[in-house]
Amino acid sequence: MFLKNIYRIVCFLYRNISTFLQIYIFPKSKKKIFNRNFVYFSYKEKNDLFRVNLDEFIYEKKNDFQSIFIFDENKIKFFIKKILNKNFRDFITNKTGFVYSIDYFSFYRNFHIPNNQMRSVYANFFHLDKPYSKNMLKIIVPISVTSFREGPLIIKKSKPLVLKNQEPNQDDLFSFLSNKKENIIYAFHPSKCFHKASVPIKDKFCTQIMMQLNPSDKWKINSKIFDKQDKQEPKFPELINIFDSYKPIA
Ligand SMILES: [Fe+2]
Question: How many angstroms separate the alpha carbon of residue 211 from the centre of ligand 1?
Answer without folding.
Answer: 12
